[in-house]
Amino acid sequence: MNDLTTRPEAEGDMPSASGPWPVELDDVTVRYPNGVVALKNVSLTVGAGEMVAVVGLSGSGKSTMIRTINGLVAPTSGSVRVGPHAVSELRGRALRHARGDIGMIFQGFNLADRASVFHNALVGRFSHMPTWRTTLGLATEADRAMVMRSLDSVGMLEKVWHRAGALSGGQKQRVAIARALSQEPAVMLADEPVASLDPPTAHSVMADLAAINASRGLTVLVNLHLMDLARQYTTRMIGLRAGEVVYDGPAASATDADFEAIYGRPVQARDRLGE
Amino acid sequence: MTQAPASSVAKAAPQVPPKPRTWPRTLGIVAVLAVLTALTATPALGGVEIDLGAIAKNWTNGADRIGKMLTPDLSVLPRTWQPLLETLQMAVVGAAISAALAIPLSLWAARPTNPNAPFRAAVRFVLNVIRAVPDLVYATILVAMVGVGALPGVITLVLFDIGIVVKLVSEAIDSADAAYMEAGRAAGGTQSQINRLTALPQTWPAYVSQVMYSLELNVRISAILGLVGAGGIGRLIDEMRGFYRYDALSTIVLEILIVVVLIELASNVLRKRLR
Ligand SMILES: Nc1ncnc2c1ncn2[C@@H]1O[C@H](COP(=O)(O)OP(=O)(O)OP(=O)(O)O)[C@@H](O)[C@H]1O
Ligand SMILES: [Mg+2]
Known about the structure:
heterodimer; A: alpha/beta; Rossmann fold; 2 domains; three-stranded antiparallel beta sheet; 9 strands; disordered N terminus; B: 275 residues; mainly alpha; MetI-like fold; 11 helices; globular; binds adenosine-5'-triphosphate; binds magnesium ion; transport (chain A); membrane (chain A); cell membrane (chain A)
């Protein structure tokens, strides 16, 4: 219903940071302070403009992988590169700048419920705004315009002055997508973006992500635990098991046997979303 | 037919882990509390002296005064307007100044809005010191420093209010779910940007209700501050008490009660609108 491909005007009027970027993980290991090794020697390259699903059981390291890509989690060893940014090397201002070029969507939407939809989407302009401007509440006209266009492109413009907490789950996730699009990112990360949504809404949000990938040419990495969503909306699938890459290949043709190999157990009904 | 359910029930008998025993701990806590109470009420051990006999001996004194207070003397009313107005002014000005100061202080004192641990500890330490000093001590010292009048009263109220508003608001921030912060960080925002645009609106309801509460406390406290010359209705209370005019005193108490109830009502209306 909010398929972005039906909105040609959204295309092209929001340039990305500088075209799509590749994402490279080189021998990345993440060991949390409590000793859990969440990623083990992961090396992979996602090409510019690819739409990739990361699948795996709960605890396999999907969230950890997404978080190392924008530096929310620092690798214990190995390196992470996103386009021109050597993310794993960066600190402070340079890291914030790199994050500004990488959009992120969360399972729980992560909106400030009491703030307006506008202010939540304006969060996406942080890395483009000097702190004093944010502190004084003075967004530039260009920032406002970018936020409005992002909200419009996901069909949420009419709710711009509503409180984020008053929206439905699907609407919240669209605002979260608009927040990420306001960054004008080159890469979009999504950590189980539809796991809190009912099936029809899940499909339309996945369609939105696919449309963003197609029309803006963004590189998209999306964590999923449902095999049919991975097959239907992405072109490449990376399977994680206990922190290691155990599958890397086309998504559409991945068989049930491939999923069983990733999951390490027979495929069950709850591995599919259905309609 | 009948076989299948029976066998599945037999197979499904789950192994419940043993429930931890809690009664020894409960018993221990009760015992410690009982011993502490006994110790603190034993004069031989330096505890407080609870002399029930004194109450029995002097009850006629008290009853006499209570009797007078039950028949309020309304003739004192005209004399109360001016000091009551002064009390209200002190309460409002004190609450307003402390409310403004409490905004940055609360954000600095809470962990989610200030990840810098040493800075946070320093802010909390200063606030603990401010809270540890009783309001009458502030008032007495300030009267000696700046002279008798409303000014020492207002400064006392500001210090007192900052202590409670910052403590309660920062605790509310500490205990609230702050997933939206992660989105701000992922978008490349600085902590100040995240605080200003998202943490602040999230904190609004707790903040408003604490400020209203401090206003209510101010009215009650300034009744006492007058005793040490720090302005307001307390001066009149001191005078009436000096002349043993308990009937006039109760009129003043009733007035304060009415003001406090009115503030409470206004606070409820505000809180409802913010919800
Ligand atoms: N902050 C943390 N501190 C310590 N251990 C963590 C932390 N975050 C994750 N882990 C552990 O790292 C492992 C991988 O977790 P991760 O969240 O990446 O898995 P996931 O594939 O996203 O799982 P899910 O599908 O449940 O979200 C798990 O064993 C988890 O318990
Ligand atoms: Mg996860």
